[in-house]
Input
Amino acid sequence: MTFKKLMTSAIATTVLSAGAVAAEEVKIGIAAEPYPPFASLNASGEWEGWEVEIIDAVCKAAELDCVITPVAWDGIIPSLTGQQVDAIMASMSITEERQKTIDFSDPYYNTPAVIVADKSMDIEPTAESLSGKIIGIQASTIHQAYANEYFGDAAEIRVYQTQDEANQDLVSGRIDATQADSIAMADFVNSDIGTCCEIKGSVENDEAILGQGVGAGVRKGDDALRESLNKGIAQILEDGTHEEITGRYFDTSIYAE
Amino acid sequence: MIPFRALMQPHRLVMLALLLAVVIWCALALRWDWIPEYAPLALEGLWRTIWILVVTCVLGFLLAIPLGLAQAIGPWYLSAPARIFCTVIRGTPLLLQIWLLYYGLGSLFPQIPWIRGSELWPYLRQAWPYAVLALTLSYAGYEGEVMRGAFSSVNKGQLEAANAFGMPRFTMFRRIWLPQAIRNVLPTLGGETILQLKATPLVATITVVELYAVSSRVRSDTFIVYEPLILLAVFYMIIAGGIALLFRRFENQVPG
Amino acid sequence: MEIIFETLGLAESAHLLSLSPPGWGGNLLRGLANSLQIAFGAFGFGLLIGLFGAYGKLYGGVVLRDLLAVYTTVIRAVPELVLILILYYVGTDLINKVSGAMGYGRVEISGVVAGIWVLGVVQGAYATEVLRGAIQAVPAGQIEAARAYGMPPLMLLRRVTIPAMMSFATPGLANLWLIATKDTALLAIVGFSELTLETRQAAASTRAYFTFFLAAGALYLIVTLCSGAVFARIEKWARRGQPSLKGAGR
Output
């Protein structure tokens, strides 16, 4: 009898302790893989970076109680639709394809897509110049869609789980070039690991694939949260918080209208 | 194969009917429109999975034979390194080994500038050599342990008889020891080969485009969550079934 | 200490691995603690499923036996990575639907609980086979004698079956435990915070890939070797009173 009671109470405790949490908390999903300078892990185990600070600022302006929740980038949209997180602020571009599944807030930054390669290589960001080369890109990004569409026939495309791994292979020489966000790549070539390489230029824009800026993703129909986030984003753009945070990380403004 | 009479029992017929109903519902209700577009890529992924599996199992087994032999009868200076190798391989996750080989070695390349002009460079640039190396070493580590037991389990009397007849050592190994050892552990080898199949998806993390990588690509392009995973699971079950059948045929050829 | 590291050229690595920030050693150890937590939970959950599964396969009705056969075959044929993804999405979807239907709103599932759920289901299939073989190896006479005395089934399980089958099950269970610890590495691909993910994050942030992967490998190896020693003692305890295996099979 005691054994049965013990088992029942043990099972009940486990289930209930994984149980419901106060609904006031808003879980903001970020990518579990570091993406400097936007979001990276420091040695104390805390997340820091431009995007992390923007998330804090937007939430404060929108008066939301936000909790930063790292989720694997590969499964970040299913986590949103499956309600593990309430919003995604992980440098995710607003594209039509993604808008079929989720809604987006207004954009909070813009970044063109660039090609980065070794300084000694003479490469232009065009399909002819990249013909026969090996391009590395991160999975589930607009760059993967773009590269498959425009460079897929001419060059060999390699898919990495994180942009960092693609950068590492660029430094090692396994790939000839990588396509990624210009800001993250500027940070990479200026760091002491990226001294080999430089930005070769931005690729021809295709808004359908590359999207219209980076926004926060929310579930389809979750207009209340979307409006709150829009309010927060508009607020920090207006009162100069966005500019102040940007000034600490970058030389130029990264919000283009 | 499953005997017909075993299938004809009433509860099994009901379950088969239920399974058929579920399959038909899946075929009609879930989204399968992505299949025609990705079929060529899927076939390429399937081929890559199979050849990586076959190559690493064969190479790994060839490596496992000396490892097992060294541990079974070798002098301490051979058996100790073999033991250490098997322990390290079996004691660390395969994912870590793969990443260590690929990214760890990759991080050394910039410090060796002449490597880009060398003959090996085209191979060092690609991902599949590292995948094959990591999976081969892993298989060898596990099979080395299995073969150690296998070599020890062969009846010593047969080896002594061969010795008494004056059979050269290598011939005795080739004709008596090795075949009997393999026959003793054939079921285990079949199980380990299926485990190797289950390890192949890990190489997708170092850009090798095999079956799992194709399903990830479909998921990230179309945002469909379940259907690619279900089809992927079915594919792997079919391949595992094929391996099991193959090994059962080998086992049936064993006399007695 | 520092002099030894400097002569070996390992000063920078030691600095990176130190326990307090800016060294990443603390992060790695925290990840290891998470890994071990998930492994314990998954192993225990798997054992529970395995016990029910083994009994179902041995004494259950034909339908139960077939369903369990399907369960074990599917889990043993499909790669863990695919299973982890499927179980994670299916599990969280189900929980949210159930709690939604019951009116509770969203239920929070921590990474550890989700990891225990997915790995536990996978372990359950293997544990079913190990325990089934072990229970079948218990001499039938002992069970019959206990039944003849009128022992209720649960008491029979607790006093006769489990102690007797422990010695047969221990090697298989030791193997399962090692598989559980190594499978936690796969959770890194799904983004759960454990040792391999922490290692990859540390390596990505500092670019010292070799150092961190070797350190993580060493940590896993230590866990494996310690587990081996612990299970050797458990097997010795489980085999107490039985004749020694030495000299058998000559």
Remarks:
- The first helix of chain C runs from residue 2 to 7.
